[in-house]
Amino acid sequence: MISQNSFRKAWENRKLVGGALKAAHVRPDYHLYYDLFQEGLIVYAEMLEELATDKARTEIDKLSFKKVLWQTLNRLKREQRVCERNTDMNEAYDLGEEADWNNLVVLKQEVNKLSKMEQVIFYDHLFLTRRSQN
């Protein structure tokens, strides 16, 4: 558990977290900036808590900066993978619609080449197949 004193110290030196976010190329207008900033403060407070007795404050600050930086980069990579996955799914959906329209145009052209009797048989088969699927 992180003490209130560690949180206070992390808040007083919040420029360290802001610097780590800047090093990760996260700008303040990024939609997750404040989430990343708060997570960075928590990591910094944890580091202050864990290493307070073992190391000097300057050493803790250096290690904390690196840890906040790496955690931020990791979170950004995860966010990028989620966005890419969602984009792929959206593009696949759109491509499916476009392929359906293209197939419909080709099918319409081919059906027009059929005789009237063949068209009746084709449409009859098409409608029967659709009803059995529903």
What structural class is derived from the secondary structure elements?
A: mainly alpha
Number of strands: 0
Please give the radius of gyration in angstroms.
30 Å
How large is the count of helical segments?
A: 5
Specify the biggest β-sheet.
none
% residues in beta strands: under 5%
End-to-end distance, in Å? 58 Å
Cα shape: rod-shaped
| Helix fraction by DSSP (H/I, runs of at least 4) | over 70%
Mean pLDDT: 84
Low-pLDDT windows of residues: none
H and E string: HHHHH
Task: Summarize the structure in short.
This protein has 134 residues and is mainly alpha-helical.
Walkthrough of the structure:
The mean pLDDT is 84. It is built from 5 helices and no strands. The two termini are 58 Å apart. The longest helix is centred in the middle third of the chain and has 57 residues, at 57-113. With 134 residues, the chain is mainly α. It is rod-shaped and about 90 Å long. The protein has helices spanning 4-12, 14-23, 33-51, 57-113, 116-133.
Q: Secondary structure elements and their pairing?
A:
Layout: H1 4-12, H2 14-23, H3 33-51, H4 57-113, H5 116-133
Helix pairs in contact: 1-3, 2-3, 2-4, 3-4
List keywords for this structure.
134 residues; mainly alpha; 5 helices
